[in-house]
């Protein structure tokens, strides 16, 4: 069984960012279907995706719903910096801030997770 942490850093403002988030969600779905230990983490500008993907009319909403149970968190610091902290919390997604307000990638690596960024 694989242990994988998929990190979304892509912003919501570009078509390229949309491509990166769809690839991240598809990767999480594939690992989930394979019964692997997979976590999805939104960091940096990626924190902005939660409130977008929660919209029922967003083209990636259904895929997001399939993998939402694998969300390990959204960077607490970045959610605040990008002005989406309250939206993230309102969506029921937990904030991650183990290392100075950011997710701890050292912790993930020490637990045997392979880290993949999008």
Written description of the protein model:
The chain is an alpha/beta fold. It has a single domain (3-117), classed as Hypothetical Protein Ychn, Chain: A. It is 42% helix and 19% strand. It is built from six helices and five strands. It has a five-stranded parallel beta sheet with strand order 4-3-2-1-5. Helix 1 packs parallel to helix 3 (61-67). The protein starts with a strand and ends with a strand.
- Tell me the fraction of residues in β-strands, as a range: 15-25%
Sheet with the most strands, sense and barrel status? 5 strands, parallel
Q: How many distinct domains?
A: 1
CATH superfamily: DsrEFH-like
CATH class reads Alpha Beta
Mean pLDDT: 97
> Helical stretch count?
6
Q: What is the tally of beta strands?
A: 5
Please report the distance between the alpha carbons of the first and last residues: 22 Å
Instruction: Name the helicity range.
Output: 40-55%
Rg over CA atoms:
13 Å
- Judging by the overall fold, what is the CATH architecture? 3-Layer(aba) Sandwich
- Strand arrangement within the widest β-sheet reads 4-3-2-1-5
Write the CATH fold name: Hypothetical Protein Ychn, Chain: A
Series of H and E elements:
EHEHHEHHEHE
Contiguous low-pLDDT stretches (5 residues minimum) are none
Shape: globular
Overall SS class: alpha/beta
């Amino acid at each position: 069984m694989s242990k994988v942490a998929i990190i979304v850093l892509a912003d919501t403002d570009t078509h390229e960012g949309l491509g990166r988030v769809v690839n991240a969600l598809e990767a999480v779905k594939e690992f989930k279907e394979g019964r692997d230990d997979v976590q999805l983490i939104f960091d940096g500008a990626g924190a902005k995706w939660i409130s977008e993907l929660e919209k029922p009319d967003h083209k990636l909403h259904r895929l997001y719903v399939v993998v939402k149970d694998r969300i390990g968190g959204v960077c607490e610091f970045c959610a605040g910096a990008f002005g989406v902290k309250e939206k993230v919390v309102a969506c029921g997604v937990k904030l991650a801030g183990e290392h100075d307000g950011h997710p701890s990638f050292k912790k993930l690596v020490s637990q045997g997770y392979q880290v993949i960024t999008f």
